[in-house]
Amino acid sequence: MRERRRALVVTATALFLSVLVWFNYSAVLPQVVDAWGLTGLEAGVVFGAFQAGYLVAILPAGRLADSHSPRWLIAVGAAGTALPSLAFAAVADGVLLGAALRFLSGVFVAGVYVPGMRFLSDWFPESVRGRALGVYIGTFELGSGLSFVFATTVAAAVDWRLAVAVTSVGALAVPALMLGLTRDAPDRRETAGGFDRSLLRNRRFLAATSVYAWHNWELFGVRNWLLAFLAATPALGGALPGLIVGVMIVASGAGNVAGGWLSDRVGRARVLAGGLVASGLLSAIFGLLGGLPLVVLTAVTVLHGFVLALDSAPTSTLITEVVADQRVGSALSVQSLAGFSTTVVSPVVFGLALDRAGYALAFPTLALGAGLGLVSVAILVRLQRAQAGDTDALDPETVSEGTDD
Question: Hey, is 355 helix, strand or coil?
């Protein structure tokens, strides 16, 4: 038990330090635009380069996590994430070099996120895996929010280059942490060979992946546009919108932990459905809330962040339960590829709706993602009932029904 908890703490720390790099460019974007004279398109290219690097590398990272020690992948991935980001802080002077260095960081961070889930899946049995992955994925949200806080604070006090460097250097400590304080699970099963195409014939896996993809459609659409929406509201000004966004993202970390814990106790599908209904309702009406008093608008925004993340950990946990143990890394990488691909599309759809009818119509395009996620949950339930022949079954996997470690 003690060694299992240490594995969780160390792996979550590794993710936290790496995620600070993921979002530090976004946190200092205005200063970079001014310093380099970037157009909006050029600034977007530098931002998108990181996402592109991640998407290119995520499938190979998943296969490597199945066939090699995830600890080593995380160690190499974190160091590889930090070094190009430190170079970005030191020498980047324009869109070409900046995008190239961000792309390299994106490639290497793929060696941290999914291999970390595979590593923890090896250590934690299904009865408590939801809460473990909830803590781990919650660390992603915590790092995302605090990256904005740390980087904007340092950038305001000194300059943006030091802000990027400060939020990058910590990832260099990850190799010593992962290799010195953890070991592979004793019963870990490895597999050789390439991508297992049988994953694409696993209907429960495909349904769970669909839930995650539509979850990300809503989640990242909200995050991409929330700051602009808050900045346009009469009650907010100055640095308040950025601070509220940071707190909202940290609240998503709490939502991840809560969602994972609840899914171990009441079932994955119940938590998925509840989270998607709550977030979808808030997304549908959020564009109408700009006139609320500051305290009320802040409270609703933080609540939105919490419920947006309730379904993340249960979905990833489901992936680990509906595929063979030796294919968990590959399965999680396919899930991540599908999920992050939708993050490219939903902000564009939001923007098109915004141009035509304002925020009142734009936010419901994100609620559409929650609705389609609910359809995918219904398919999961139906598949389980068909397999088990139990008309009373609700959860897609007959685990997580209140069991404990």
Answer: helix
